[in-house]
Amino acid sequence: MKSILILCSLVATPIFAASGGDLDANDYVGISFWLVTAAMLAATVFFFMERSSVEGKWKTSLTIAGLICGIAFWHYLYMRGVWIETGETPTVFRYIDWLLTVPLQMVEFYLILAAVTVVAASLFWKLFVGALVMLIFGYMGEAGLMSPLPAFIIGCLAWLYMIYVLWFGEGKTAVNKTSASVQTAYNTMMWIIIVGWAIYPAGYVFGYLLGTVDSSSLNLIYNLADFVNKILFGVVIWKAAIDDKQTA
Q1: Cα–Cα–Cα angle for 84, 192, 6, rounded to 5 degrees
Q2: Exposed, middle or buried: residue 195 (CB in 10 Å: 0-12, 13-18, 19+)?
Q3: Domains and CATH numbers, the chain
């Protein structure tokens, strides 16, 4: 199964790479698209292969981590082609990717808690709905379906709501009942959501709220945010799983 996954990924890559055009050495945004594409593929392979190294209760979380990076890899193949060939922001592809990967990241909090303790099902739904609200209004602002500033404010409020639920609500109540390794992973993931995800609003501000649309700043910051948040998020879970196995 692992060999098939790796083979399929490697076979698919040249097909899309061929449509990417020539990469200008001075196109730092284009270079960032290619770097993130390669990193997402590497992370996908790593997380799926490492499933066999962790205990059963962590396997689903590592599978989700692999899916998050795999989905991002697939969409970055398209996004980099759009940027390199047209110089335009791949807004639709970007939000399709986020519509799949961001809720999955939120679900990870529920999964690592549910694997080791009793956690309220409401936590899952609050995180899922919060992620959807954040993304829907973000897309509406970027696609011109509503004014960028109100869309930005609503999206940020949804982000803050998820932080509140995880830091002070059901999430915090559940994590206090878990082992040290789970608490460490949870708290580190929380800081990624707080600090790492703050990169996305920064991209939105530089891209849409400073008077003119700056596609270069927008995409460079978004690419950096995806690189940090998707891959590091999975690495934290993997490290917690390894530590948990060593202390068992």
Answers
A1: 55
A2: exposed
A3: 2-247 (1.20.1070.10)
DSSP state of 89: -
Per-residue pLDDT of the chain (248 residues; tens, 9 = 90+): 554 454 455 445 544 544 545 777 888 999 999 999 999 999 999 999 999 888 888 899 899 999 999 999 999 999 999 998 888 999 999 999 999 999 998 888 888 788 777 788 888 899 999 999 999 999 999 988 999 999 999 999 999 999 999 888 888 888 888 778 788 888 888 888 898 889 898 888 888 888 777 888 889 999 999 999 999 989 988 988 888 777 76
Class of residue 189 by CB neighbours under 10 A (exposed 0-12, middle 13-18, buried 19+):
buried
Scan for tokens 């929380």, then name that residue.
190
